[in-house]
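retry 2 of 3: previous attempt timed out while embedding calcium ion. Reduced batch size to 1 and resubmitted. Inputs unchanged:
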Amino acid sequence: MFFCDFCNMKKIIGIFCVAMLSAFQVKAQCNELFISEYVEGSRNNKALEIYNPTAGAIDLSKYRVTRWQNGSAAWTAQMSDLLSGSIQPKDVIVVVLDRRDTTQTGQDTPVVLPLRLKADLFLSKDYNTSYSMSFNGDDAMSIDKYNDATAKWVPVDIFGKIGERPSPAWSDKPPYTGTGTWYSMDKTLIRKDSVMAGVAKNPLEFNPKLEWVINPRDMFDSLGFHRCLCTQGPSVSVKAPVISQVAIYPNPAVSMATVFLPFEMEQLVCLNAAGQLVKVKFNHFGMDDMSQYSLDVAHLPAGVYTLEFIAQNGAKATARLVK
Ligand SMILES: [Ca+2]
Ligand SMILES: [Ca+2]
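retry 2 succeeded.
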């Protein structure tokens, strides 16, 4: 009898310890901003999505984004930009390279419209003074926070390895001399939902497979929300609501595709795999609570296309179409 009671007690203590440990781990994680998406697209189509896993809004005035250019471990003002605004709990902001006006100094090829529409904050307007967002695959990136007590900036999340220059990108095959599948170049990377904290310490080795899911170049569909174990369900950005109830068929399509949307479409943006805008004509025919459209895709070359449907009130829905 005594022995059995002892067994039960041991079991209870064990369960209690596991519960305490889990609670501690969840608390230690989900308590600081981290990068939830890394977009190294064609030309100047560059973006970072930053996620707030905490239960409170975070003021961004004490944060900055830094690029550690081409293996450099020396911080410079030109490679760093202060963030501004705030992020609501379980929400994100989308930071996009500021290339919009080609007539201004320090500007060149503009960011494509579908990515511009996702932006909450544009950074690095003039590359003569500000160059943080011009990463191109061989640059480590960090989100740094100002510590009032020590008066120092410390990283809260590091992408890549500061001080290392892969050639031309970090891949799934170290020592990163061009072999394997490139991760940090010509890709959209989404942080795995199991990740609940940033990499605050420069890693001995950056293995992108551990924390990142690889997606094709110029995929912008998933910018504006993030799902992970810190939250129940996807967060929805207040600024750019994303509505996912899209039905599209047939897919792959040959000459005509039919789309059902939860709103009336004002604008259709179609991008090919290279991120170029492609014109697609659409016709509306209404239904009770959904809107139905036929898309003329006969003229499109074979390939994968990203479609963004935009309503008059700014609501958006995206889908991928295979031709
Ligand atoms: Ca570079
Ligand atoms: Ca996202």
